[in-house]
Design a protein that fits this description.
The protein is α+β, with helices and mostly antiparallel strands and about 550 residues long. The protein is built from 15 helices and 12 strands. Helix 6 runs antiparallel to helix 11.
Length: about 550
């Protein structure tokens, strides 16, 4: 079980780590764009300081210090927000459910957050500092009266926004793919019923029941007493309960044929069950018969197989009555029944081949008790526990758990990844929207004089609004195109996390683009509205 969880969770953790790094990069790009705009506005200040004798090294040190202070303050605010929302996030992302330790905000986390803040300040502050101190002093002083944007600065800020848009759209598309996978998982046919069914491991002492008939009788009598309890409709036992216990796949082949090579073997998940198990768990018996109490030690070995295994093993023959060999047994089994396919190895497993042996012919000392009740099965847990203790104090009964809870736990890791990626995608989208708004707002402020002249020459407010919206939509459009290409490449890497959906699902791509397009439009409207409200007289007077 532990090996399965490690293999199952590792891709999810890798995805979350990559997404977190991408979000951090988006935040750095966002801050870099704001710092570039802030540095552009301080060109005249830097020129004046240089003219008064300040060295370039001193100016760079000043700008870096300011950048680090700003990011550290922002980091402290983020830590405060994390403390406020810590319990809420843990309820939203139940990390304790699949056995993952519940995280807490400790000293190591705080030091890491502060270190990231300082590093971010240095990284995003170095480029504006170098750009702001690279021009000739006299060129700066001569340009101090002009408020038009530099072409290189405009291209750099526009490029940063395009990169942010591309990353955010890629995250949104990935989130959309996982959401659609989750919807498919929620509607998948498990092949068995999960409501009103509870199970728990039951282990007897082999020394006390040394023979197969004795062990079979212990389980049979206990199951009979459980069935007699009020509120219980059926009960049985199985060596490995669906979802809870995985693996144990054995080769199976025609008895008249030699044992096939491992690479050519047809495999089936092998379980031993007591009579009535299929009706208890809700797996339909399609053909043949169920196991009975007469299938005991010394009688002809029998086996029941799933429909998928019957189709693979007997594509052109009638399965019932056929003789097969399986595993490492040196005798043949007769196929006496065909049951429906079931997701016994996990909700996301597509391996439906199953082999069911008669528990009465082998007498296992360890099995899962499976009980179906009329109402809430949790209400029967204490009664079953007490009954087991009274019947055999030396036996060990594990914690009882509902089959529905097992299915929910099997999906919990996937839900955590989906919710976490969704939250990170929303944060990335908001950061990108802020960056887009900042670039357009700065663009409007730098072109105030130009817009005043356009208005004086007869341009209508709607024309000025169109100019800003055109610039914003151009950045978003290019970012969407780049994001689609990036998403089409990166989504293939999470193929193993998807369920019954292709990485290039058109609906997920369209949904991500539409969702981000609405947010981007809102971010563009405010600067565009400001451009249409520019006072012509004030703009011309400043010119």
């Amino acid at each position: 079980m532990r090996d399965y969880m490690v293999a199952h969770v590792r891709p999810s953790l890798n995805l979350l780590i990559a997404t977190t790094g991408l979000l951090l990069l988006i935040a750095c790009i966002n801050v870099s764009g704001l710092q570039l705009a802030r540095g552009q506005r301080r060109v005249s200040e830097m020129a004046m300081r240089s003219a008064l004798g300040a060295s370039r090294r001193r100016l760079i040190r000043q700008l870096l210090t300011e950048s680090v202070i700003l990011t550290v303050v922002a980091g402290l605010v983020g830590i405060a927000v994390a403390f406020l929302f810590h319990s809420f996030l843990l309820r939203l992302l139940p990390l304790g459910d699949p056995g993952v330790p519940v995280p807490s905000i400790d000293g190591g986390v705080l030091l890491f957050a502060l270190a990231i803040s300082v590093l971010t300040g240095l990284v995003v502050g170095i480029v504006p500092a170098l750009r702001g101190t690279s021009l000739n002093v006299w060129e700066k002083l001569e340009s101090s009266n002009r408020t038009s944007e530099s072409r290189s600065g405009t291209r750099l800020r526009t490029g940063l926004v395009v990169v942010q848009v591309a990353m955010s759209v890629g995250l949104l598309i990935g989130c959309g793919l996982l959401i659609r996978s989750m919807v498919n998982l929620a509607s998948v046919n498990l092949g068995f019923e999960t409501e009103n069914v509870i199970g728990g491991t039951y282990s007897i002492q082999a020394d006390d029941q040394s023979t197969t008939p004795e062990r079979v009788e212990v389980f049979a009598s206990l199951i009979a007493e459980i069935k007699a309890q009020p509120g219980v409709t059926d009960a049985a036992a199985i060596t490995k309960l669906p979802i809870a216990s995985r693996g144990t796949d054995w080769p199976i082949w025609h008895a008249a044929e030699p044992r096939p090579e491992p690479r050519d073997s047809i495999m089936g998940l092998t379980r031993a069950v007591t009579p009535g198990y299929f009706s208890t768990i809700g797996i339909p018996l399609l053909r043949g018969r169920d196991f009975t109490t007469t299938d005991a030690e010394g009688t002809a070995p029998v086996v029941i197989i799933s429909e998928a295994l019957a189709r693979d093993l007997f594509p052109d023959q009638r399965p019932l009555g056929q003789m097969v060999r399986l595993g490492w047994f040196d005798f043949a089994f007769e196929v006496v029944g065909i049951v429906g396919n079931a997701k016994i190895n996990g909700v996301r497993s597509d391996f439906d081949q199953a082999i069911y042996l008669a528990s009465g012919q082998f007498g296992p000392t360890f099995q899962w008790l499976v009980v179906r009740t009329e109402g809430n099965p949790n209400l029967m847990a204490d009664r079953i526990q007490k009954l087991v203790e009274e019947k055999d104090p030396s036996a060990i009964l594990g914690d009882l758990v509902t089959v529905k809870a097992l299915v929910d736990e099997d999906l919990s890791g996937f839900r955590i990844v989906m919710l976490a990626l969704g939250l990170l995608s929303l944060v990335a989208m908001l950061l990108t929207a802020v960056g887009l708004y900042g670039v357009l707002a700065y663009h409007v402020s730098e072109r105030t004089n130009e817009f005043g002249i356009r208005t004086a020459l007869g341009a209508a407010p709607i024309d000025l609004t169109g100019l800003i919206l055109k610039k914003g939509f151009l950045m978003v459009g290019v970012g969407l195109a780049v994001g689609f290409v990036g998403a089409s490449l990166s989504s293939r890497l999470i193929r193993q996390l998807l369920f019954e959906i292709e990485p290039l699902d058109p609906l997920s791509y369209a949904g991500g683009a539409l969702f981000f397009g609405v947010v981007a439009m809102i971010a563009c409207l405010m600067p565009a509205w400001r451009a249409s409200r520019i006072n012509t007289v004030a703009a011309l007077r400043s010119e």
